[in-house]
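Objective 1b. Sequence-to-structure analysis of Molybdate-binding protein.
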Amino acid sequence: MKKTLLGLCTVAALTLTACSSGPDTGAEADQSEEITVFAAASLTEVFEDIADEFTATDPNAPEVKFSFAGSSDLVSQISEGAPADVIATADEKTMDTLENDDLLAGEPEMFASNTLTLAVADGNPKAIKSSKDFSGNDLVVCAPQVPCGAATEKWAETNDVDLDPVSEENSVTDVLGKVGAGQADAGIVYVTDIARGDGKVEQVDLDGADKVINKYPAATVKASENQDQADAFVKFLGSDTAQKLLRDAGFAAG
């Protein structure tokens, strides 16, 4: 009889242990350890800093992983089913593609803006002072389907400038890289990119650039399995902390 009682108690204890551990396991399973953010190449450094602050605000905040590229490439990837939780593009038109295809969980939030400028090699050896000096020099721009390329075309039309680039790149990072590597004499980039040139480029103001402003929206991807965490990151982009980091990086308010 004692053995039977002992056995019953042991079974009961094990059952209680299993029951008590069940909810904890489920809660842990519900906790996402990371979110993936697809972001325009021009946001590379500042978004990494923002992510550090985002995770520091909450011990339960997920780790943020990034995929940086030209906005149009990122939108194409999401349209084709690539897993992403947040998308941040360098213009509204590119984001509209996802919104029109009902691939976003909500309205995009504007969090920053950017302006075009001219990157030249350190020391400006070709003495390029304005768009009037493009002729006879190798100019690199972003491709028209990329936000910086669309802005460049709009800038050229607005200011009656004839562009004759030696190449059109798929991201502003590629434009910056070609100028920094000496493969081009000048490149049209964003003002925020000059600091990213590691001293290999310097800035020349682009005449009439203030007539073309790119606004940066961010949104949660509808297919995200971590929408609460994704929403929290999008919201954090508008916080005082994130906005200060964006200003320090050269971005203006959205």
